[in-house]
Structures are given as structure tokens and as C-alpha cells.
Amino acid sequence: MAEEEEGTEEWYKLSTELHRFYGGKIEVLPKVPVRRLKDFAIWYTPGVAQPSRLISSDPDLSFELTSRWNTIAVVSDGTRVLGLGKVGPEAAYPVMEGKALLFKYLGGVDAVPIVHRARDAAKFVELLQLIEPSFGGINLEDIEKPKCFTILDEARSKLQIPVWHDDQQGTATAVLAGLINALKVVGKKLQDVRIVLFGAGASNVAFYRLLKALGHNMHNVVAVTTKGVLHPEMKDIDKLMLTDPYQYQIAIETGGGGLPPNSPIEKAFDGADVVIAASVPGPGVIRPEWVSRMNRDAVVFALANPVPEIWPSEARRAGARVVATGRSDFPNQVNNSLVFPAVFRGVLDVRARTITDTMAIAAAVELAKFAEERGGVGEERILPTMEEWEVYPRVAAAVAVKAVEEGVARRTTTYREELERATEIIGTVRQKIQLLWGNGIIPKPPVDYQG
Amino acid sequence: MSCLYAETGINIRRAIKEDVKQLSELIYRFYSFNAEFDPSWAAVNNLRELANDRANKLVEDQESLVLVAVQGLEVIGYLVAYVEENDLLINGRQLVIKELYVKPEQRRQGVATLLVNRARDEARKQGASLVTVEFPAGNKIAEDLYAKMGFRPYLVRYVKEV
């Protein structure tokens, strides 16, 4: 999801003014006692030489003796920033900084924005390998496709710290969580449903992978792009193999969902139970008559921002029973902010080497379970909101335990232990911020707004 | 003679008259695909028509080796190769694979390997000691495929407009 709401000119003006007033959004603060100059003999030379010596003989000690264990990089080349497109690395910085703010506030994770000029995938991956010793994890952000798929796959295989591309995996995980609960509402089973993927960009390709990891019958999936239904016999399929190998793979593995080659888009909706749309802003991108072709109790996720592919009211009139969007002003916001802070909290706490697809699935299942336990699920409640902050330690615990189970963690933990640890870390951040704000150390904004 | 691979139900045999229609479709796709790599590989405008003529010629051609991979009634892949000779070389007789194409839906199932292995057997029969294969520069997919089959780089051909 783009974090952007459909803003007014005034809102943009205010935001610029506040960014200028505060000079950005984050800073680095010490977390150790500094009472007098002598303390530096511990934190810096000569004392610091001993941690350095120890780490030199065992680099993994950097996760114990330094802040590496809780520090990640938020990395972008600025090639696909929010809905703005290729605005360049400098222009991507405020977005990465905002992401860092969310990481800290929601997950207690220290995130460092890194924007760079490496334009080709190989160079990008090389950069990640070069900076790996500084960080406990990497969050990739706002990178154009299909480059983003290659970078994620390569980096995942080459680095010994978790690499996560939020526009792919974060959104896909939130989608899966929402879908699990939407299917509870309509009384259908995930393994039985026929799914239309409307758009095959970052998040839908990642969601496709999660479906595959779940053992879904891929012939019950139809992917639709601007080229029409992805199909092994589509025109230019060989060209697709070169230009977008990921879409090509989907075309081959789904067999076009059993449709004849060159089927019109509306045919893809015939007998479908679910449509997951992550394509271009609507309205009118998905037509109501297409939704009407779907099975009874259809589930429609229209995730484009700022305007969904089809307005929820239109989708419902056309027969959809559960509708989700990417927006906070409609029910059922599919929001990756429910996912990434918790996933990183969990993997950092067990010093994980990677984030597997099954760990993402574990996060989705826990997220869905949380929503169900706290207030139950319904047509207008398939996911928790960001205000229900207990969700973060819960998801962190599920991810951490899964990492241990899968043998990708450097240290072991139990669900209960991680739940307590994550609750404490995240709770402390809120206390710190409240303290700084309450004492006036974070100055009052020159103009206030109704948030 | 043809060879049926029981586990896959894929049959590799020489192309015959009855294959022309399906073979011409594969030839058409092969030439369309190669045009993606370099403008010098651009195909003619009436490619369909000429691919059909070529298919007709190939099934009659005694000089070339033309193999098809068949699954049920469907031709899912083809290979064209011929023997090249140079009596100044120890390995003076080699089989050159000029064209190979497998339909997308049947890829990653070893069809190309079956075709190439059969071509290798034919090469031996005709006294050739090497099998070589040509494809456009920049076709990484082909590079990986042949490397996996144990091929190594052997000849480089450069191009320049005149």
C-alpha cells in the first residue's frame, strides 16, 4: 500500500512546513548512562577495544555486543516511490525516514534510511552485501519491477541477515491474513477457492508465492495483467520469459487457470470466489459486471491507492460479500504496517538469518487469529487496525518461533518468552516518546492539525 | 525409428509430412523469439507463410536431421541440425544444432534434453565426434540450458552491418 491518503493541497503544504520545522523525523540517541566524561572510557577507547577483539574472533558476537541486533537498513534506489514513480534517491529519503519512524514506533526497531544510486540489480545486491556487517536486517523499499524480484531473490540467497521487500512480502502477508478471515466469513476453504490475481506486480507476485508455499492448486488461479490473462499460449509468451520471468512463471504454472488462450478479461471472473486486485488506481478498473460473474459470496480485495479499482459500494451491489481496500477510511484496510514492524521484531530477537515464505505465512495466520480473538471476524472486520497495538508482539512471537523451528535462527526462544520481550521493547518506545513529548523536548508543532 | 520415453509419454522421432502444420507453428515461434535478442535477427514480414514452406522442405530434406518431440497428438518441440565437415581438423565431423524450440507449457520437463540426446545418438551414427549448438548472443536461458547439459563455449560469431 502506498502510505499516501488522497491528500488535499492544504495537507501537502502543512506536511512540508512540518518537515522543514523539525528538519526530518528521526535522530540517533544514546541508550547508555553518560554521566561524566569518564564514562567514555567504557563506551569508547580504551574500553571498547575488548568488544572489538572479541567480535574479531567471532563476528556473530556483533549481535550481542553492539546495537546490530536491533538495527536494520531501509534501502531504496528511488525508482518507484509510492505512487510518484521514479523520483530519485534523494526524493525517496523522506519516505524511508517515515518508514523508519513506523519501524521504531510500532516494532521498536532501529531503522536507518539508505538511499543510493546503484541502478542495476547486480550493483544493488553488491551494495547490500557490502553493508551487511552494519545491520541485523534489510528492508527493501520502493524499487521498480521486475528488478525488485531479482534483487530480493539474489539478496536472500547471498546475505546471512533477513532481507525483506515490504512492497512484495509485507503486502502479500497482510493480504493472506485478510483472505484467511474473509473466507471464514463466507464459509469457504482456502484450498477450494478459485482466485483471480488482478495485476501481477510486486505484491501479487509475492502473494502468488505464498499461495504456492501453502500448496494451493495453481490451476485454480488466474492472473490478469494489462496483457490480458497470463497464459502459456498467449501472444508474446516467449518475450515475457525475457522481460518478466516472474509473470512468465505464473502463466506457465497456472496454465491460465484452465481458460482458453486469449480469453477476454471478464472470463477470468467466471466462477471465481476471490479477486485480489493490486493494479492501477480506479475507479472503473474492475467493472461491476465482472464481479457479478463471480460465485456467490464473492471476496473482493481492491488494493490500489489512492482510489481502489472498484468502489466498495459498487462491488457490494455487484454481489461481493466481503470487500477490502488499501484505505483507512473504508472498512477492512489491508495495511502492511500491521506486518513489517512485527516481522522484524520477531526475526531480530532470534537473530534470524533469513525470512522464509513459511515465516510470512505464520505471520499472516497469527494476524488473522488475533483479529478473530479480539472482537471476532465479520464482513466489516477481517483485520485488526494499527491502534490494536497488542497485535505486534503477537505476530513477532509467531514469526520468532517459526524461525527457530525452521533452523534459521541464531538463538532459540519460546512463544511466551518472545511475546514478553516484544511487548516490553515496543512498550518502552512508546514511553520514551511520551516522555520526550510531555517534557517539551520534542517541540510543539508551529501549526497543529486534527490527526 | 522413434523412441518413447515411458514416464513422460514423450516420443522423439524424425519429422514426417503429417507434422508440417504443427512444425511450421514452432518454426514461426522460434524465429519470432530470436528477434528479441538483436535487430539483426529480425524475421521477415510474411514469416508465417515462409515458416510453412520451410516446414514442408524440412520433412523432405534428407541432408538435415529434423526431430520432433511429440506428446499424444501434439508436437511440443523440434530440433534442426546438420553435419558440418572440415578435413583439416581431428574433430572434422560435427553435428550442428541450428534450431531448437519447446512449447512454453512443456518446458522444464527435459524435452530439450531428450531432443539433444537423440541428436547426439544420430551424430555418432554418422561418424561425427562433436555436437555443437548455435543460438543468439545474449540468450542466457539457452546458455544455462546447454551448460546444464554439459556443453561449453566453443565458437564466437560477431556481426556487423555492411
Automatic annotation (TrEMBL), chain A:
Lineage top rank: taxon: Archaea
InterPro entries assigned to the protein according to its UniProt record, in alphabetical order: Aminoacid_DH-like_N_sf (IPR046346), Malate_Decarboxylase (IPR051674), Malic_N_dom (IPR012301), Malic_N_dom_sf (IPR037062), Malic_NAD-bd (IPR012302), Malic_NAD-bd_bact_type (IPR045213), NAD(P)-bd_dom_sf (IPR036291)
Assigned keywords, A-Z: Oxidoreductase
Coiled-coil stretches noted in the UniProt entry, renumbered to this chain: none
UniProt-listed SUPFAM superfamilies: Aminoacid dehydrogenase-like, N-terminal domain, NAD(P)-binding Rossmann-fold domains
The Malic enzyme NAD-binding domain, residue ranges: 168-404
SMART domains, per the entry: malic, Malic_M
Domain Malic enzyme N-terminal: 23-156
One Pfam entry name: malic
One Gene Ontology molecular-function label: malic enzyme activity
Protein name: Malate dehydrogenase
Organism the protein comes from: Acidilobus saccharovorans (strain DSM 16705 / JCM 18335 / VKM B-2471 / 345-15)
Organism placement in taxonomy: Archaea, Thermoproteota, Thermoprotei, Acidilobales, Acidilobaceae
